[in-house]
Amino acid sequence: MLRDALFIVISQSGRSPDLVAATRSARVSGARTIAIVNATSSPVADEAEFVVPIEAGQEHSVAATKTVIGSMAASAGLVAELAQDRALRSALDRLPERLHRALALDWSEISDDLVKASAVFVAARGLALGSAREIALKLSEIMRLPSIGLSAAELQHGPRAALSSRTPVVMMRVMDETAATVDALAEELLEQKIALHVCGGPHGSLPWLVEDDPATDPITMLVPAYRMIEQAACARGLDPDRPPRLSKVTETF
């Protein structure tokens, strides 16, 4: 039984059968169910007890971008309300303006390394790890490059053996308890001549805003990353909106 559990499902389309089935099962088992969805008229929304609309408008490309940012912001808003976290509420109030400013950040310096890359590692720690995995997904999806999103701590173990001059590392660093370890890893990789691109911190090489909140900064970092990937794809003659062999709704079960 899930009588004392809170079940949260996040979906752009709200139509994947596995998410529908999981939401239905959780609710039948007694959980409080919340659907964070862009399509409020969808099977997932129908199965959930409560619906938090992303309201990002229709996603026209196969690769979701604005709904990812919207779902992360909505999730943070839900946490802020449940926890009565005034600092997070304040950060979310600042987020729209910071997202707008982030549109002007140019991360095109990564593009040169992508051209000769055999694979890309995207690393972060703490609350930035989700954004690292999302950027890696988009690099695979849109640039068609094998890309791995992983914890900066994990990059100090087995995966580090795979680093070379042809495997650039993109790293996100936020000002929280993980900052010192991310900074130390960045310094080590620079000493080893690994192609490293860092957002934030003393080793930051990518344009960035003044640090704000570690819960919302990873959301803002997605904006320049998305723009860089789109521009790099177009420069290589790839269509960033329609990656091959993919569909808008992935039906898994």
Give the spatial strand order of the biggest sheet: 5-4-6-7
- Global shape: globular
Summarize the biggest pleated sheet.
4 strands, parallel
Helix content: 40-55%
- Flag low-confidence runs: none
The overall strand count is 7
General description of the model:
There is one protein chain. By secondary structure, the protein is an alpha/beta fold. The protein folds into 2 domains: 6-64, Rossmann fold (3-Layer(aba) Sandwich); 109-235, Rossmann fold. Helices cover 42% and strands 13% of the residues. It has helices spanning 17-28, 43-47, 66-83, 86-102, 109-115, 129-142, 179-191, 217-235; strands at 6-11, 32-37, 50-53, 120-124, 147-151, 169-172, 196-199. The strands form 2 sheets. It has a 4-stranded parallel beta sheet with strand order 5-4-6-7, sandwiched between helices. It has a 3-stranded parallel beta sheet with strand order 1-2-3. Helix 6 (129-142) runs parallel beside helix 8 (217-235). The longest helix is centred in the last third of the chain and has 19 residues, at 217-235. The radius of gyration is 19 Å and the shape is globular. The model has no long low-confidence stretch (mean pLDDT 94). InterPro entries: GlmS/AgaS_SIS, GlmS/FrlB_SIS, SIS_dom, SIS_dom_sf. It comes from Bradyrhizobium ivorense. Keywords: Aminotransferase, Repeat, Transferase.
Topology, element by element:
Blueprint lengths: L5 E6 L5 H12 L3 E6 L5 H5 L2 E4 L12 H18 L2 H17 L6 H7 L4 E5 L4 H14 L4 E5 L17 E4 L6 H13 L4 E4 L17 H19 L18
Parallel strand pairs: 1-2, 2-3, 4-5, 4-6, 6-7
Helix pairs in contact: 3-4, 4-8, 6-8
